[in-house]
Amino acid sequence: MTEPSPAVEAAIEAELRLLDPAVRASAELLAELLHPEFSEFGTSGRHWDRESILAALTAEGASAPRPVTTSGMRGVQLAPDLVHLTFDTQSGERRSHRSSLWRLTDSGWLLYFHQGTPFSAAS
User: Fold this and answer.
1) Exposure string (b/e) for 99-118, b if CB count within 10 Å is 16 or more?
2) What is the spatial distance between Cα 33 and Cα 114, in angstroms, rounded to a whole number?
C-alpha cells in the first residue's frame, strides 16, 4: 500500500482537528476550517451552509459536542487542490458513513463539502 500524498495527509489532519469537541465548540476555530462556500448534507437529512452550521454548533445553550471515534479514514487526491476523504464515525450509539471534500486555498486546506449518512451495526 502506498503512503498518502502530503495533500491527503493535510486533509486528514484538518478533518481530525474539525472533529475535536474543543474545535467544534469554538466559532473562531471552526471557521478557520470551513470554506466560505461550505455545504453539508447532515445525518439528519438537513442541508447546512457555513453560517448555519457555525451558528448551530456554537450557539449559547447548544449541547456540548460529544467525542467522536473515527475508523477507516482514507483519502484520494482528485486534483492538486482537491482531496476526497471517506471514513466512519461513532458518537455514542450513533454511527455514520462520512464523505468530505477539502479544497486548498490561500488559507490552507478548508472543508468545502461534507455528507454524513447514518448506518446501523447490522448494515
Assistant:
1) ebbbbbeeeebbbbbbbbee
2) 12
- Summarize pLDDT for 47-102 with one digit per residue, the tens: 999 999 999 988 887 777 788 899 999 999 999 999 999 999 998 889 999 999 99
| Spatial CB neighbours of 104, under 8 Å, sequence gap ≥ 6 | 7, 80, 81, 82
Cα atoms found within 13 Å of the Cα of residue 19, Cβ hemisphere only: 21
- Evaluate if pTM is beyond 0.85: yes
Which H or E element spans position 32? none
* Sheet hosting strand 47-49, strand order edge to edge: 47-49, 34-41, 108-119, 94-105, 82-91, 69-79
H or E segment to which residue 103 belongs: strand 94-105
> How far apart, in whole angstroms, are the C-alpha atoms of residue 102 and residue 96?
19
What is d(CA 98, CA 116) in angstroms, rounded to the nearest whole number? 5
If you search the block for the grid coordinates 500500500, which residue do you land on?
A: 1
Residue 106 has pLDDT above 90, yes or no: yes
